[in-house]
């Protein structure tokens, strides 16, 4: 799934949870955790590519195609290997559970907004395929990856954003106490 969708899904889930439970979880914090895995993974790569465009005389045609960078091949540039490692870490259920546990111990309570990170991973499993960053959700215990639907396929994008629009309309109506069928 694209990073914007992850932020929107996180907002929708936590807005809905706040309405349903009458709690006040921080939606902005959930959005940050919802986009965290992709921002963490790809920011170093984008900084390097931007630096190359501005200061090194690179052009867009000099960059390898995304399908040539995942999985990282032995002759791949270090930045692509680093991105693959960061992606594996941030999209791992194992890493999430460990980090969630550590943070819960530090704060002496669970930070429920962190579950947006978990939702990110769960959404990515079926919306990534082998051609572009399949989700390594069992890393480092296993290299197994699910060959799902490509999130950038037009039908997936239409379904995704249509669902988000409907959910945000329903949340708005629910918040205003408008009866919903």
Which SSEs are present, and which pair or pack?
Blueprint: H1 3-21, H2 27-55, H3 78-90, H4 93-107, H5 115-124, H6 154-175
What's this model, at a glance?
By secondary structure, the chain is mainly alpha-helical.
Task: Describe what you observe in this structure.
- The chain has 181 residues and is mainly alpha-helical.
- 60% of the residues lie in helices and 0% in strands.
- The protein is built from 6 helices and no strands.
- Helix 2 packs antiparallel against helix 3.
- The longest helix has 29 residues, at 27-55.
- The protein is globular, with a radius of gyration of 18 Å.
Could you describe the largest sheet, including whether it forms a barrel?
A: none
Low-confidence spans: none
- Sheet-strand content, in percent, reads under 5%
Task: Find the structural class using helix and strand composition.
Answer: mainly alpha
Quaternary organisation of the protein chains: single chain
Mean pLDDT: 89
How large, in whole angstroms, is the Cα Rg? 18 Å
Span from first to last CA? 30 Å
Fraction of residues in helix: 55-70%
Question: Helix and strand string, N-terminal first?
Answer: HHHHHH
Task: Give the overall form.
Answer: globular
Q: How many DSSP helices?
A: 6
What is the tally of beta strands? Answer: 0
């Amino acid at each position: 799934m694209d990073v914007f969708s992850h932020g929107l899904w996180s907002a929708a889930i936590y807005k809905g949870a706040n309405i349903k439970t009458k709690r006040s979880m921080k939606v902005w914090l959930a959005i940050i955790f919802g986009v965290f895995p992709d921002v963490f993974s790809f920011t170093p790569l984008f900084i390097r590519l931007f630096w190359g465009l501005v200061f090194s005389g690179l052009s867009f045609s000099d960059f390898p195609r995304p399908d040539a960078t995942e999985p990282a091949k032995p002759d791949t540039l270090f930045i692509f290997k680093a991105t693959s490692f960061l992606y594996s870490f941030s999209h791992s259920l194992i890493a999430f559970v460990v980090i969630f546990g550590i943070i819960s111990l530090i704060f002496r309570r669970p930070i429920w907004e962190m579950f947006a990170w978990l939702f990110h991973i769960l959404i990515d499993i079926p919306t990534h395929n082998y051609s572009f960053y399949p989700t390594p959700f069992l890393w480092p215990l296993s290299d197994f990856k699910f060959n799902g639907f490509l999130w950038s396929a037009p039908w997936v994008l239409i379904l995704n954003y249509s669902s988000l629009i409907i959910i945000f309309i329903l949340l708005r109506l629910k918040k205003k106490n408008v009866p919903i069928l």
